[in-house]
Amino acid sequence: MGKSIGIRANGSVSPVGVLPSTLFNSIFKIKPDDFDLVNIHEPFVPGPSLVTLMKAKRVPVVATFHRSGVDMLYKIEATLLKYLLQNINFFVSVSASADETVGEVLNTKTNIAYNAVDVKSIRAFEMSSNIKRGLGPAAKPVAKRESMEKNTYNSDETSMSVKAVFVGRHEERKGLEVLLKAVVEGGKDLSKLNLCIVGEGPMTAELKQKYRSTSFSWLGKLTDEALYSMMCKSDILVAPSLYGESFGLILIEAMAAGLAIVASDLRSYREVLGDAGILFEVGNAESLNKALENVSKNSELLSEMKERARNKASEFDVEKLARWYLEKVSNLVPTE
C-alpha cells in the first residue's frame, strides 16, 4: 500500500503505515469484502491493518495478535476501537503472553497458534552445509554429527572454535550489550568462542566502540538465505532479550538449522524451548557467561542440545500451522 515509518512502541521501533499516501491507498484500494476470508495481523495498528478491519462488513475476519506487554497508548487505542471487535470472527494469538495482552486490553480470549517456519527449507541449507563438510546426503545425521562435534568442540583436544550467533535489532530490549559484556568482561574462559552479530540499530556504533574483540564479526543485515546458510554453519544461537518478546521466531529458525539455544529466561522463550535450550537469568551477564562456557566447552552437551533443538523445531513447522488454520476457520467461509 505504500511506505511505512518507524514508531517507538513496546521498547522497539515498529513500521506503521500512517503516511498520507499509504493511508490513501489503503482506504481506496483495500476491498476486504471481495474475499471469502481475511486474516489481519495486529488489526488495531493504524494503517492497512486497521483500515481493513474497519471496512470488513460482510467477510469473515481472522485477527492475529503478536504483541506482548501493554502501555498507556495501547490501552487508549484499544478503548477507542473496541467497538470494532464485532467485525472479528476468530481471535488468534501467537503465544500465551500475547493472549494475556489481548485479554487485558480487550477483555477477550484468543486461540493460541504459535508462529511457524518452513523447517524443510531451512534444513536444506543444513544439508548443503553438511555436504560441504563431507558428511553427504546419505550419511547418518546424528552419528556423524556427534562424531564430528566431539572432535571439533572439545577444547582439550582441538584448537577449533565454537561459533555463536546473535540475530536482532541493536537496541536495549534485545539485550545485545548483555551478551557482549558476558563475552568480553565475564571473567570466564571463552577464548574458543567466535560471535557473529547479525542486524543493526541505534546502538550499533556505541557497542562496536565499547566492546572490541577480534572474536566479534559484525555482519549487519542479511537476507534470509544468507542468514540460514550462516546459521547452519554455526553452533549456538544466543537470544539475550530483556523484555517485550511475545514469541521468539528466531529461536525456531535457529533450532530448524540445528543450533543449540542459549536464551534469557523470559516466559515466551520458555514457552517455545521447553527443555530444548539453556536459559540464563534475564539481563545477567555473569549468568550468560556461565551458560556459554558450559555449552561451548562440553562437546557432548553441545551435541545433545543441537539434537534436541532439531526435534523441537518440528513442532513449529508451517505445514502444521496451515492444517490448524484450515481446521479452525474453514467453517467461517460461506459455501455456495
What number is the mean pLDDT?
Answer: 82
**Cα distance spanning the termini:** 31 Å
Strand content: 15-25%
Helix content: 40-55%
Radius of gyration, in Å, reads 22 Å
Morphology: globular
**Biggest sheet record:** 6 strands, parallel
Total domain count = 2
Structural class: alpha/beta
Task: Name the CATH homologous superfamily of the largest domain.
Answer: Glycogen Phosphorylase B
Overall strand count: 12
User: Which strand order does the major sheet show?
Assistant: 9-8-7-10-11-12
CATH topology call of the largest domain: Rossmann fold
Oligomeric organization of the protein chains: single chain
Order of helices and strands: EEHEHEHEHEHHEHEHEHEHEHEHHH
Give the second-level CATH assignment, the architecture of the largest domain.
3-Layer(aba) Sandwich
Query: Treating each run of at least 4 consecutive H or I residues as one helix, how many helices?
Result: 14
